[in-house]
Amino acid sequence: MPQTFTKSERLCSKKILGELFKKGSATVGTFYLFPFRVLYLPQPKTDPESNVSTNSVVITVPKRMFKRAVDRNLIRRRVREAYRLNKHLFKPNKAAPFSIAFLYTAKQIISFEEIEKGMKLAIQKVGS
Fold first, then answer.
1. Using CA atoms, how far apart are residues 64 and 124, in angstroms rounded to an integer?
2. Which HAMAP family match (predicted)?
């Protein structure tokens, strides 16, 4: 399995994003694991020919915490790379793929090693 992060793995659908961030939704799973708050939603099996075999991901970094776009982009790149390197940790026998949102919650820019450690734990928790 190549270590890439293709367009099909990025969550772009406004409908799915709306469902994922809807307050009080019973279908959305959520947990906090430093430095992320993770929201996940099983993808429906509606269209058999659509590419639903992979998880789709969105990464958010709050403008309220990091005013400069340079800082937000740095964090976003680190989180994306941590996901790309560790997405193989998802269980391959899992029936339904997930739509996942990683919300960066740390108050400062942390090292890639810490981000990767949190990403590994988050992926294992969602995948189980």
1. 29
2. RNase_P
Q: SS3 sequence, the chain?
A: CCCCCCHHHECCCHHHHHHHCCCCCCCCEEEEECCEEEEEEECCCCCCCCCCCCCEEEEECCCCCCCCHHHHHHHHHHHHHHHHHHHHHCCCCCCCCEEEEEEECCCCCCCHHHHHHHHHHHHHHHHC
Of the CA atoms within 13 Å of residue 61, those in its CB half-sphere come to 21
Digit-by-digit pLDDT tens for the chain (128 residues) are 567 778 888 888 888 888 888 877 778 888 899 999 999 888 766 554 444 567 889 999 999 999 999 999 999 999 999 998 988 887 665 557 888 999 999 999 999 999 999 999 998 888 77
- State both tokens at 56: 């789709």
Residue with tokens 């982009």: 73
